[in-house]
């Protein structure tokens, strides 16, 4: 298969704001010969549409890779640097080496390729839109899996974001190993753990 001379890789991440779980990044090189209709910022798509597009992206893209930085790395490095690390890993994991990279946001990870940060890139650049969809759907699936292991937190519903219901569950049950202890709401719970749980009262 002959490849185009200009291979643009789009990169985006999902999961900077949640209180738990890894941050996930995706890198995507689209195939100009196999266009994908309806690519957009993953946050503006319904869950059903995101999941359908994620399947199509995986089938039609010239190359794609999903990578993550762990909770331990987030706590050690901070969320920004952990996000950059996940992006580095996603680009490095591509089966095809791109000629240039565009990243959603205002800064680039350290990679040995021409790289440009594009503010609102997930709405402006198809490759970044595709990366945002893969990162979001992969992280959501991971949180659904974590919900099966830790049902007390309701992770499948809020995906780890600090909603009122999530904070209430965190206060009731305390923080377990999937939580980012460097994040203020989690740190506050650890400093003031629950004195009792619902199980103690039953």
Task: Walk me through what this model shows.
The protein is an alpha/beta fold and 202 residues long. It has helices spanning 47-60, 71-77, 79-92, 121-124, 126-149, 155-158, 164-173, 184-191, 198-201; strands spanning 8-14, 23-29, 63-69, 100-104, 115-118. The chain has a 5-stranded mixed β-sheet with strand order 3-2-1-4-5. Strand 1 (8-14) and strand 2 form a beta hairpin. Helix 1 packs across helix 5 (126-149) and helix 2 (71-77) crosses helix 3. The protein is elongated, with a radius of gyration of 18 Å. It starts with 7 loop residues before the first strand and ends with a helix.
Question: In short, what is this structure?
Answer:
With 202 residues, this protein is an alpha/beta fold. It has helices at 47-60, 71-77, 79-92, 121-124, 126-149, 155-158, 164-173, 184-191, 198-201, and strands at residues 8-14, 23-29, 63-69, 100-104, 115-118.
Please report which band the strand proportion falls in: under 5%, 5-15%, 15-25%, 25-35%, 35-45% or over 45%. Answer: 5-15%
**Sheet with the most strands, sense and barrel status:** 5 strands, mixed
Estimate the helix proportion, in percent: 40-55%
Can you count the helices? 9
Rounded radius of gyration (Å): 18 Å
Rounded mean pLDDT is: 94
């Amino acid at each position: 298969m002959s490849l185009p001379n200009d291979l643009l890789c789009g990169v985006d991440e999902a999961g900077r704001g949640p209180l738990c779980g890894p941050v996930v990044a995706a890198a995507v090189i689209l195939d100009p010969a196999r266009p994908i209709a309806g690519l957009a910022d993953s946050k503006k798509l319904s869950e059903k549409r995101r999941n359908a597009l994620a399947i199509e992206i995986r089938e039609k893209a010239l190359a794609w890779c999903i990578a993550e930085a762990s909770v331990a790395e987030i706590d050690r490095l901070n969320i920004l640097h952990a996000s950059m690390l996940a992006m580095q890993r996603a680009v490095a994991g591509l089966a095809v080496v791109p000629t240039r990279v565009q990243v959603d946001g205002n800064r680039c990870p350290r990679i040995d390729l021409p790289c440009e940060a594009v503010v609102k890139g997930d709405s402006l650049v198809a490759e970044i839109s595709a990366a945002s969809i893969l990162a979001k759907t992969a992280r959501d699936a991971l949180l659904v899996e974590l919900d099966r292991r830790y049902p007390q937190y309701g992770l499948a519903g809020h995906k780890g974001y600090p909603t009122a219901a999530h904070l209430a569950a965190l206060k009731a049950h305390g923080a377990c190993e999937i939580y980012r202890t460097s994040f203020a709401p989690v740190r506050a719970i650890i400093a003031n753990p629950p004195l009792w749980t619902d199980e103690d009262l039953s």
